[in-house]
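step 4 of 6: structure.
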Amino acid sequence: MQSRFPGRLLPYLLLSPSVVIVIVFLIIPSIQSLYYSFFRVSPFGDRLVYVAFDNFIKLLNPDYLNSFIVTLVFTGAIVVIGLAVCLALALVANQKVAGIGLYRTALIWPYALSPAVAGTIWALVFDPSTGAFSYFISLVSGTMPNWRTNGTFAVVVITLAAMWKMVGYNVIFFLAGLQTIPRELIEASEIDGAGALTRFLKITFPLLSPMTLFLLIMNTLYGFFQVFGLIDVMTEGGPARATEVLVYKLYYDGFISLKTGYASAQSIVLFVFVAGLTLLQFRFAKRWVFYQ
Amino acid sequence: MKENRYFVLILAGLLVAAFAVGITSTAAQAVTKITFWHAMSAKRMPAVNRIVEGFNATHPDIKVEPQFSGKYKEVLAKAIAAARGGSPPHIVQVYEVGTQTMLDSGAIVPIFKIAKPGEIDWGDIIVPIKDYYAVDGKLYSMPFNSSTSILYYNKDLFRKAGLDPTKPPTTFAEMEKIGEKIVKSGVAPNAVSFGWPDWQFEQMHTLHQQFYADHQNGRAGRATKVFGNREFGVRVVSEWTKWAKKGVFLYGGPEYSANKAFLAQKIAMLYQSTSSVGSITKAAKFEVGTSFLPRLQGYPRGNTVIGGATLWTMKGHSQKEYDAVWEFYKYLVRPEVSAQWHKDTGYFPSTNSAVKLLMDQGWFSEHPNHLTAFLEILTGVKVPASQGVRLGPFVAIRQAFRTALEKSVEGKLSPQEAMDEYAAEANRLLKEYNELYQ
């Protein structure tokens, strides 16, 4: 049965808050960014010099390309390694074991922390001179890893921290997905003599594919946009730009170095890239995602 | 159907009510409220609050509302956003590297425009502070927290390593020798680290009477180039890189992040702002010594340079509010207020009268580490090269320097290559910035 709204005004009125929010906080700033990306802007925005595509051409410099590569490596690791680990954890957490509630809560915990708090914890644990982790490493290997100077190690620490932060989120969704898999299918396969691995590959994984696609997209977006807090607290993009992902570079150039025009150009590129990536994932997904 | 209409009515009513509350609350304002955004974290925050509370208690018609708004760079970004959005605070604390940005902003009211003649004795302001911030002899912002860089060292570790705790290094060569001894003796894994590494590089220039940028450090006209890749700058970075290779120097990251290693006795020496003198002496579980920054031999003597921040008054407020701001500034330079600020934090008091007051109270003889920075900056040579650097895109230039130093220390680039890369980037930033103001 379909019920109709009384009057013509009410539906628009009820929709208006979200429309206003989208216009004020998304559409207008996007248009402004596009506009500013063709200018060089003074810090206080009182002076504009038209530079045509100069800001975009400047993006071809090694610093930006480096930032691009760092982002891809970083997001790739979060998506591939992170999701694999989380799926394994979810499979384990889906067993009927005593105290499972406790394990599940513990797994979900990291997601409840704000990025700033998570970053502070990791920075403390991995602090080159006072951190507990650094201490153990130095006991075992005799040398002290220092992510303030060693770029590769910095990337590893940030990636681990970012993956750890997403464990809760990913595990919850995988668990939810696992619980929707009908018992009959599993039982039927058991009767047919399928082993645990076959069962996972032929039943669990395909039936989980819509959830996996969703998490793939969410984790990609996370890798691109939401690791800002961790990086800001831990490395500020250093050492020597080793952890300067695109979104951190954008923030730094826009809000710290106060180059609004250049940062606007970066935001346009980032927008196009992420939109493209998401579309690609959806298109690609049609081939292998199995909706029940 | 009817319920829906009521719902709409209630919504509309709430909106009207919200507006009404907004209007009445502004109309009911009898005391002048002054918003003050600052970046004083940790032990510095209660010190700021103490000043503000003292002021509010003695000025019932004014209420200064301090608001901690993040690190220096975040406060500046926030102030810019607020100014662009048309609702700037009255007072913003901006770090010394933001000075040129603020002067160019068109969003500030210079202090000499709100000052009432004769009410603050400008001659009483400590000379290096006035020199740093004055433009053509005029102050545009109110001196508040000024510091310089000093050498902190751990006397206990010196003793354990068999070194004389009354003889901290005075030259680069001594630093290297003492550093090696500390590392070899095994009392600490590394010997020395820096707070604000970019600022320390500026300190090295002023300390050896070297210009950091052309046009007299951007004070005689807009700077167009930095000199970091010349002989002197490369020499300094080469020394630091050499120390790093020997394990003497531990690169400690930006701002105050190296303090932790010093307090944990993982290093025995630290170049850091004098503003940490209060927190370091309080937190250290060892005897802290302080001294002047070590020098390179064979270069003329200059002076260390001022760091810290000043208070800027933003445009867009009423005369009554500016009068209130002026009252607050007058309160800040009162000798007892300025002296307390120094005791709480280690920042210089802004006036000579406050220094005299501290001396009369016997403060310096009881707290000799608080005296070091004064002696260092007041015994230096007053030359244009040591007055301080003024660059438009200074924040970005500092980041470019840190990146280059990290590359050099890590061994990715030679010191010369790293400094060339830094200079090219800095010069490009200067050119782009200057084009905005042609």
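step 5 of 6: annotate
 - The first strand of chain B starts at residue 32 and ends at 38.
 - The mean pLDDT of chain B is 91.
step 6 of 6: archive
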